[in-house]
Structures are given as C-alpha cells and as structure tokens.
Amino acid sequence: MLSFDEIQLRVSQWLSKKRFKHTLGVVESATHLAKLYGVDVEKARLAALLHDCAKELPLQDMQNLVKSESYDADQELLSNGNLLHGLAGMIRAKKEFSISDDEVLEAIRVHTTGKVHMSTLDKVIFLADYIEPNRDFPGVDELRNVSELDLEKAVLLGFDNTIIHLIEQNLSIYPLTILGRNDVLQSCK
Q1: pLDDT at position 1, please?
Q2: Second label for 83, Cα 20 to 30 Å away, from 6, 52, 75, 105?
Q3: Cα 148 from Cα 154, distance rounded (Å)
Q4: pTM of the model
C-alpha cells in the first residue's frame, strides 16, 4: 500500500482545488474527533482523505465502477451521484490503493447516506465531512459545539439537518438515511 502522503498526492490530482481543500479539512476534523472519541487516528485520516475520491467523477464512471465490482445498488443510489460517490469511492480506494481495511472502506461508503449500526469510525467521518473548517452554513457552529460534547447527538443533528435540507429542496430522502437517523435517535434516548 502507498503511504498516506503518496495517496494524498494522487487524490489531489483527482479533485478540484476546492474539493481537495474540503478533503484536507475533513482529515483535520476526523483526526480531532478520532482522538476525542477513541477511534484509530490512522484509520480516520485515511477514510477522511479518501471519502470524496470519486466525488468529481462523472455519474457514468461511478456507475461503471459499481457495476465492475458487481455491487448490488438500488436504482435511487445508482442515479444520484451525490449518493453514489460514497460507494464508488470505496471501490476506487480498493482498486487504486489496495485499501483492504473493512472499517475504512465502510466509513467511505456510508459517509453521505449513513446506515443502521454505524461504527464510531463511520460516525467520525460522517460528522467530519459536515463540520470541517471550510464549511459555512446555518447551524454549523452549533454542530461543531455539540460534536465536542456528544458524538451521538452531533450525528443525530447532522442527520436532522440533512433531512430538513432535502425536504426544503423538495428532494427525496434516501431510505438508509432515515433508518440511520432513527437508529442514532434510539441510542440518544
């Protein structure tokens, strides 16, 4: 496997300047959250670095990646690059960098949609993607503050913000996102 710096160089060549800056912000936030919540820092850094490695691929290329590995993805996932890039990124990380750590790969896969029974690493990457220093949207400061105190509540707030945004934009909500949100809600009670 390549070193972190070698992978970072390759990823920087795949992404726009803005997307790569975001990625480095996610690495920074994931490192902090991993230390705070007892997650393997190297796994968090690697998953954060690779979380958007397929984000700027054309949708057709993402679909071809998924089909090349015979993944069973539903039509809603396959038709939406904003959702599909997590799965495509997981596959790209395996193919391009020989990443074989299932925890890292899963965190890449679910960083946008979430899922039921998210691991702590999954939650760290999901949240780091939301709160990285370059993000600026209403409520991000509250989310950053909550993330310092309670990972579960911060992830729940992240899910809630996503769902509210999708409703306000009259967009569909991916079923796994609702299930993931409800699962985290139960752990907060």
Answers
A1: 74
A2: 6
A3: 9
A4: 0.96
Task: Please provide the CATH number assigned to the domain covering 4-188.
Answer: 1.10.3210.10
pLDDT in tens, 62-97: 999 999 988 888 999 999 999 999 999 999 999 999
Sign of the dihedral through C-alpha 56, 61, 63, 69: negative
List helix spans (H) across the chain: 4-14, 17-37, 41-50, 59-68, 75-78, 81-97, 102-109, 120-131, 140-149, 151-168, 175-188
Q: What are the residue ranges spanned by the domains of the chain? A: 4-188
Tokens found for residue 123: 């939650």
Structure tokens at 5: 């710096």
Q: How far apart are CA 57 and CA 61, in angstroms?
A: 6
